[in-house]
Target: Histidine biosynthesis bifunctional protein HisIE
Amino acid sequence: MDKLLIPCIYLKDGRAVSGFGSEEAAWETDPEALARAFGNSGADEILVFDFSGADAEHDRAIGDIKKICGAAEVPVIGAGNVKRMEDVKKLLYAGCRRAVLNFAKPENRGLLEEVSKKFGKEKIVVYLPDIAVYEVCREAVEELAGMVLCAQGMEQSLHGRTELPVLVLADTGCAWELLGSQNIQALTGAAVSGKNIDLMEVKSRCRARGIPVNTFESKIAWEDFKLNSDGLVPCIVQDYQTGEVLMLAYMNQESFQMTLDTGKMTYWSRSRQELWTKGLTSGHFQYVKSLTLDCDNDTILAKVSQLGAACHTGNRTCFFQELMKKEYDDKNPLQVFENVFSVIKDRKIHPKEGSYTNYLFDKGIDKILKKVGEECTEIVIAAKNPDKEEIKYEISDFLYHVMVLMAEKDVTWDEITRELARR
Model:
């Protein structure tokens, strides 16, 4: 099993800091930027501590955690301010893959069974303040938790006692030395959270020491690629979320290996005859999600997370000059949803006389909810009919009214698809 690097973010007063208490700590005004930086630099997950106080502060922190989950592109663990089952629910609904129960608080120990059975043990991390607490709660922790979190040093006491993966909060020491211990499955804290720490470099050092970590390694050797007359392989670059084709570039063996090592798309510039890491001067980096070789071994398809524009002209994609186009219906499911949703949102901003959509918005939330309920019932009735055409019609009606509800409550398809993907 790969060992994990899990940098942490501390939230307080609407701001975020990495490596709290360390010399590298630097306050950020945008928690999303810090989360995105961690996600793009090689983090396997991110641990977020909510240090807020009053309820209003806590609600703001939940909003920040939701933004972090959307920006990070890696799983998020939520911790802090958990006092009841509802607090765990808020963290998970905000987008966290897991939530932490702090067993330093005796009242949280009684929550474990309830939240584990409600959300699943894989969603629950238990923080253990000392070995005495673990011994008292051992049976429940082993049965109902998916991971344990402890301070640096305590992993020695847990060795041989727990079957669960141990996440260690470490503020000192080199990450590759700490992960070399068989007692540690994952590492968090200042040791992996400094803004200047290159997590891909940390993983490279771990790999060199035989420590299993999640890195980019090609399943096919470069020697098996078919090169063109210049000794290069063309690489088609695609947005990993939308499928949009962004650009075409070329790779040699060195740029291919550098891409694997750094997690950033690196090419061979034919015009300058040099290595070219996309974004090094513009800031528009391309972070690798996957690399795939075609059937002839002569073309690479890269799916990436693109920052900013892919094209030097400032366009999102290099493919923007239309040569010809035949009219056709775009049947890409998500694109259809987005197109219909865009019309609905436009109606809300720019009302149109006689529009049924504007009629619903004018009548308000109760009318919208009534229609959603009615359409739900129509689906149930249609499902009893052997003719599937009727149920297709009713589901389409239902989805339209749900999109009106989404626009009214400011929920987007991006948020919905992220939630479905997370599940």
